[in-house]
């Protein structure tokens, strides 16, 4: 049944994306950019509805009140394609720094350009990165929210954290709050897999880290608060969903947490 529901969901998910891009393009490219943002926002909401109705996956968000007004960096854990779009309905005007190759994809690239996403050559250094930082500052000056995944790439649930120091440099150079986000969508929408699993999980938006900390101290603090919340949610998610098959990384991390709890008792 899970395999059948996964195939049905994936088929409708991509059809939903393609049809919306084609049918709504005349409206999207005529109206002002901020008005056009309603289209990707509603697309994200429709995906949540499809996940619930077809797969049986639901989620809740704790800490919406922790999202500041104006500009900030949103720094979520990254486990799945799900978390690339999931929070769009709750963000006023987000901007991504993304691989320049994505801008070459028909329709997707055009939509991203309309929303003034910031393309970057990941292998670039020097002047190119200076230009990216300049573009980022220009967008944030208008009150936008920058989405950065501190670990850079998708990691399986429970995996040893592998944060990139670039988030600390952005924190230092941009001088705006950073909002960590912990969640485990990878247990339901695993990376590199077509399987979609039913269940319920939490997304936890943590208190914003104010600007002005030493970058090294900020980096350590970001990892500490995010990973503590991530561990708590891993235990909670597995307890809520005992049917879930767990990846080895999650099994190992749960064993470590149980051992630490027993040792401190």
Automatic annotation (TrEMBL):
It is an enzyme of class 2 (transferase). It comes from Rhizobium mongolense. It holds the Pfam family Acyltransferase. Residues 72-186 form the Phospholipid/glycerol acyltransferase domain. This is 1-acyl-sn-glycerol-3-phosphate acyltransferase. Its EC number is 2.3.1.51. The lineage of its organism: Bacteria, Pseudomonadati, Pseudomonadota, Alphaproteobacteria, Hyphomicrobiales. Pathway: Lipid metabolism. Keywords: Acyltransferase, Membrane, Transferase, Transmembrane, Transmembrane helix. GO terms for molecular function: 1-acylglycerol-3-phosphate O-acyltransferase activity. GO terms for biological process: phosphatidic acid biosynthetic process. The chain crosses the membrane at residues 12-31.
């Amino acid at each position: 049944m899970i395999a059948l529901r996964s195939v049905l969901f994936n088929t409708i998910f991509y059809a939903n994306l393609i049809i919306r891009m084609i049918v709504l393009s005349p409206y999207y490219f005529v109206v002002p950019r901020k008005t056009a943002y309603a289209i990707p926002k509603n697309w994200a909401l429709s995906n949540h509805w499809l996940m619930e109705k077809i797969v049986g996956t639901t989620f809740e968000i704790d800490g919406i009140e922790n999202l500041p007004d104006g500009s900030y960096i949103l720094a979520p854990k990254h486990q799945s394609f799900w978390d690339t779009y999931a929070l769009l309905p709750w963000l006023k005007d987000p901007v991504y720094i993304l691989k320049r190759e994505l801008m070459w994809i028909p329709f997707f690239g055009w939509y991203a350009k309309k929303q003034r996403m910031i393309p970057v050559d990941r292998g670039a250094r020097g002047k190119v990165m200076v230009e990216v930082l300049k573009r980022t500052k220009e967008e944030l000056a208008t009150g936008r929210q920058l989405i950065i995944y501190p670990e850079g790439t998708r990691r399986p649930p429970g995996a040893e954290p592998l944060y990139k120091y670039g988030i600390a440099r952005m924190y230092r150079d941009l001088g705006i709050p950073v909002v960590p986000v912990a969640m485990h969508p990878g247990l339901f929408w695993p990376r590199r897999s077509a399987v979609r699993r039913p269940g319920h999980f939490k997304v936890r938006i943590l208190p914003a880290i104010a600007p002005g900390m030493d970058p090294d101290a900020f980096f350590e603090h970001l990892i500490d608060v995010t990973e503590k919340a991530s561990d708590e949610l891993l235990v909670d998610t597995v307890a809520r969903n005992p049917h879930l098959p767990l990846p080895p990384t999650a099994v190992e991390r749960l064993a470590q947490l149980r051992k630490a709890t027993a040792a401190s008792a």
